[in-house]
Amino acid sequence: MRILIDINHPAHVHLFKNFAWQMQQKGHEILFTTRQKEISDVLLKNLGFDYICFGKHYKSLKAKLWGILKFDWMLLKVALRFKPDLFLSMTSIYASHVALVLRKVNILLTDTENATFQHWLGVPFCDKILTPVCFKKQFRSKQLRYEGYHELAYLHPNYFQPDARILDKLGVRANEKFVLMRFVSWNAHHDIGHRGLTPDNKIKAVEAFSKYARVFISSEDELPAALKSYQIKIPPEKIHHALAYASLLYGESATMASECAVLGTPAIYLDNVGRGYTDEQEAKYQLVFNYTEALNDQERSIQKGIEILQMPALKTEWQRRRERLLAEKIDVTAFLVWFVENFPDSLKMMENNPSCQYQFK
Predict the structure, then answer these.
(1) Interhelix angle for 276-283 vs 254-263, to 10°?
(2) What CA–CA distance (Å, rounded) separates 142 from 131?
(3) How far is 156 from 334, CA to CA, in rounded Å?
(4) 172 and 291 co-located in one domain
(5) Residue 208: inside a domain, yes or no?
(6) Under a CB-based contact definition with an 8 Å cutoff, are residues 104 and 125 in contact?
(7) pLDDT band at 268, cuts 50/70/90?
(8) Residues 226 and 261 occupy one common structural domain
(9) What is the structure's pLDDT at 36?
C-alpha cells in the first residue's frame, strides 16, 4: 500500500510517526507532505522520513484562501507522481480535495472541535473521520469514535520512555522542581479572536512560579526581553522528555496539556473554547486544569499553579492518576495501523462491534 500523509502542524508529525514506521516495516510505502509551519519540516527531516515541503504556510485569512488553491495544486502534482492508495491526515483540506479528484481513500483524524474551517472544507470529501470518544462535535455517518487521545499515538508507554539525561541538558538536579510554560502564536484558523495570556500575566506567572521551581519557556512567538532568559534551549524533538520530568506545564497549548496528562505531569491550560479531551482529562482523571482567557481566570490559573507546586508527593500522585487513564484508553498507533491496513473491513468491524478496539492496549 502507498500512503500519503499530509502534515499541517508539528504535533501531527508525532501523531503519525510510529504509524509510519510500523507500516514501513510491514512493506508499505509512506510519503509525507507539509508546509513550513513552525518545525514540521525539521521534525520530518530529523526523524528520517521521506517528505516534500511546499514552502511557508500563510497566516492571514486572505492568504490562507490563496494557499488552498496553491497547495491543492502542489499536492496534486506530487500525488500524481507518488500514486497513493490512501490519504491520511489530521483534517487536511488539501489531502481531502486531492483524494477526491483522484478518487482515493481519504481518512481524516481530528480532536479539535473549533477547527471549523478545516472541518467545513475537508470533512465532506473524506471517507471516514476518526475522533476520540470525548470529542464534542457530531459528523453523523462520517464519524467513527475510538477510546483514546492523539497523544497516546506517540507517548503511550509502548513507544515512549522518558530519558533522564534531559535534566542535564536543562541544568536541573534530579529532584529539583521545574515548570515548563508554553505560549502559542494564535495564528491558526481556529485561533481567530483569541488573545491568550496578557504580557503582564505571563511575567506575573513566571515570577510566581520561580519562588517554588525553576522556570523554562517554550514560545511560538519571540519572547519579550524580560522573559528571554527563561527560554528553553533543547532540541525540539526532546521536549516530551522535559514534559515527563516537569512538575507543571502552564500555558496555551491543548496538545502539550494532553501530552502531560498521558505522561503524568500536572497541566494548566488556558483557552476560551477548550477541547473535549482536556475537559475529560480534568473531569474524569484530574490530570489537567482548564481555564478561560478572561483576566480573572488568568489570575486563578496562576494561583492554581502555585497550589500544585506546593503539593507533597506531587509526581507520585499524578502517576497514579495517569495509570488509571492508561488502563482505560487504547494504543492509538496500534489501532490506526490495524484500521488503515484492513480498511474497509476494519470499518465494518468497528461499526458492528466497537469493543474490538480494546484489543489494542
Answers:
(1) 40
(2) 10
(3) 11
(4) yes
(5) yes
(6) no
(7) very high
(8) yes
(9) 83
